[in-house]
Amino acid sequence: MRITSALVDPALLDLPWSTPLEEWPADHLVALPQGISRHVVRFVKLQGTVYAVKETREKIAEREYDLLRALERISAPAVEAVAIVADRVALDGEVLEPVLVTRHLQFSLPYRALFSHTLRPETMNRLLDALAALLVRMHLLGFFWGDCSLSNTLFRRDAGAFAAYLVDAETGQLHLRLSPGQRGEDLEIARTNIFGEALDLQAAGLLHEGIDPEHVSDEVVRRYETLWHELTFEQAVEADTRRQMDKRIRRLNELGFDVEEVSMSVVEEGGHRTVMLRPKVVDAGHHTRRLLRLTGLDAEENQARALLNDLDAYRAESDMPDEAQAAHRWLTEVFEPVIRAVPPHLRGKLEPPELFVQIIEHRWALSEQAGRDLGLAPAVQSFLANVLIHRPDEQAVLGYEVDDDMLMSSDDDEDEAPEDESLVD
Ligand SMILES: Nc1ncnc2c1ncn2[C@@H]1O[C@H](COP(=O)(O)OP(=O)(O)OP(=O)(O)O)[C@@H](O)[C@H]1O
Ligand SMILES: [Mg+2]
């Protein structure tokens, strides 16, 4: 047996590599929901970290490993490759397929888990937005996916929306940039895959009756095209160039994208001067990066936006001009106490940034009802007692701290589920 890995966790060596993955004993495995796949995929937990282990052909494992590593270097939203285990031989001498080990994406929801309750159309829309945005981001990075589908995507909660991650890079290619033809081809593959998956969901009675499978796949493409256009279109500006440019950059930042440079060309025609502006958008993560820089917190884009709003409001209220200082105070005096207020047995329900965002929203809703601001502390108490307690344990079902009790369905959240929140049975 031979392990290739950037950072080998020695515990990996103790796994039963001479046994086919299908036959691994249950004590090594964690039962987590997973998407549909041709290869055998199992989850194992080693010292508090969950890994996904996929048996596949050597060439494929190597390619996927290299690609995932390359994607990680450019901070693409994809699962992290950990190792390849090759030269596996069973006790009877039979040669076994190599495996690719990736880190399990914590708090992630494969779409099958999301659809296990019939999904409301609004939630579906958010998923489609997340998937379209993922494809746009990958294309901006020069990545041709070759097999974009719901099964090859993982979703994480992101302050009322979803953030999507690539999970299967087997067919991908990383280029310097993609031509419109390559993007179009990738989009067509996505359309076909998603249409097929939506048909399957419909056949299984999991698709909301108001949702048409063809509409689902067309919508991903439409949303992709709208976002792509917004990020890249060349804008003709007649006057006030400076302000127009600021406006465009601001709009792109709002969408979560950073602009690396803006190219300008001047067109003179009949004494009429037009400036053509074209921003070069780098990756999404504008708010994520600002939050990380200020507080060290790692959050999804919309979560980061909400946390930054709270931070900015705090800074304004407490009249602290220095941003870094205000951020530190906010972190230690607002954010951390809220997270600490959650009793340990409830901490696996939502990850901290999502928890904080939902508490701010709860405070807002309570204050609206009361007609005055109720403050943070009562909102925290009310959220813990009336909302969080009824939520399914998402870290348990979807993350790492798993035991059998937690995997049992919690029907008691049924009556409480106010929106689409109880996504997992
Ligand atoms: N790192 C991970 N974190 C969470 N889930 C994962 C991870 N790796 C794999 N999975 C789950 O396992 C499923 C199958 O993985 P993957 O798509 O890589 O397998 P595959 O056999 O190559 O698929 P395909 O049939 O599309 O070729 C995914 O849909 C996902 O639900
Ligand atoms: Mg797959």
Task: Give keywords.
13 helices; binds adenosine-5'-triphosphate; 425 residues; globular; 19% strand; 43% helix; 15 strands
Describe the overall structure.
There is one protein chain. The chain has 425 residues and is an alpha+beta fold. It is 43% helix and 19% strand. It has helices at residues 58-73, 111-114, 121-140, 180-203, 213-232, 241-254, 286-295, 301-317, 323-340, 352-370, 376-386, 394-398, 404-407; strands at residues 2-5, 41-46, 49-55, 81-86, 88-89, 95-96, 99-103, 108-110, 143-144, 153-158, 161-166, 173-174, 235-237, 257-269, 272-284. The strands form five sheets. It has a five-stranded antiparallel β-sheet, with helices on one face. A three-stranded antiparallel β-sheet has the order 8-10-11. Strand 5 and strand 6 (95-96) form a beta hairpin. Helix 10 crosses helix 11 (376-386). Magnesium ion is lined by residues 37, 151-152, 168.
Task: Give a count of the beta strands, DSSP E runs of length 2 or more.
Answer: 15
Main β sheet profile = 5 strands, antiparallel
Structural class assignment:
alpha+beta
Main sheet: strand order: 1-4-7-3-2
The averaged pLDDT comes out at 87
Uncertain spans, ≥5 residues at pLDDT below 50? 396-425
